[in-house]
Amino acid sequence: MTDKLQSIPIKEKTLYSWFQQHAQKLIALIFWVILVSIYQWYAKTNHLSTLQVMQQMLAFLSTGFWGPIIYIILYAIRPLILFPSTVLTLAGGFVFGPFLGVLYTIIASNISSTIAYFVGHFFGEGMLKDDGSDNLIQRYARRMRENSFETVMIMRFIFLPYDAVSYLAGFLRIKYWPFILATALGSVPGTMAFIGFGSSIESFDGALPKLNPVTLGFSIAIFIVSIVLSRIFKKREGISK
């Protein structure tokens, strides 16, 4: 066996070594691509838009006892098929109402954030190590690692793409507990805003929805509060530096 390895050219040895080192990541990536492809195939084969997929989900979520469990499971695995969190959050508000909708979504979103974080953590292993350089990427990565809680909190307040933040945090090897705590707290205003908007929908049949103005107004107010909080945190972070 040793003689065979010694007879392999250097370039092939390097390639072989790279495949050995990254085999698990490649397998995981292939599985992920297959999972996303299955979802896209299902939607395309049945000529379903994201909105129509959500309409089908609403039927499942309205099934009494199993509705909340199905909702939490779907929300938890949602990052793996790249299904928009906003769409499912609105569905939660529409089906479960403002109070239960917020409760179920906070539980589900923290589970989904954890899954996305560890996926990013897995694929980020050995990448973007702090080598002391001062380029833009390293400076930003260093800032996120040193001010994990504040940075993630601001990202949640200003409604940056939910899964992208989770993947990035894991990829940059940010500590889990500051990340999940900032996510749990920082996502509350956004969750309340989108759940409020979803619960303001009084009827939904594929046409323009009929909205409850009081609940919709509450949703918009929470959205504004979230933006204000993000500015406060930005100023605090600037002062602390």
Explain this structure:
The protein has 241 residues and is mainly α. It has two domains: 1-47; 51-240, no CATH class. The chain has helices at residues 2-7, 10-45, 50-61, 66-77, 85-123, 136-146, 148-157, 162-171, 176-199, 213-240; strands at 201-203, 210-211.
Backbone structural class: mainly alpha
Identify the overall geometry.
Answer: globular
Task: Provide the low-confidence segments as ranges.
Answer: none
Radius of gyration, Cα only, in angstroms? 22 Å
Most strands sheet = 2 strands, antiparallel
* Sequence of strands across the biggest β-sheet: 1-2
- How far apart are the termini? 57 Å
- DSSP strand count: 2
Mean pLDDT: 78
- State the order of secondary-structure elements, H for helix, E for strand: HHHHHHHHHEEH
What amount of the residues lies in strands? under 5%
Describe how the helices and strands are arranged.
Elements: H1 2-7, H2 10-45, H3 50-61, H4 66-77, H5 85-123, H6 136-146, H7 148-157, H8 162-171, H9 176-199, E1 201-203, E2 210-211, H10 213-240
Antiparallel strand pairs: 1-2
Helix pairs in contact: 3-5, 4-5, 5-8, 5-9, 6-7, 7-9, 7-10, 9-10
Summary, kept brief:
The chain is mainly alpha-helical and 241 residues long.
Could you list some keywords that capture this structure?
10 helices; 78% helix; 241 residues; mainly alpha; 2 domains
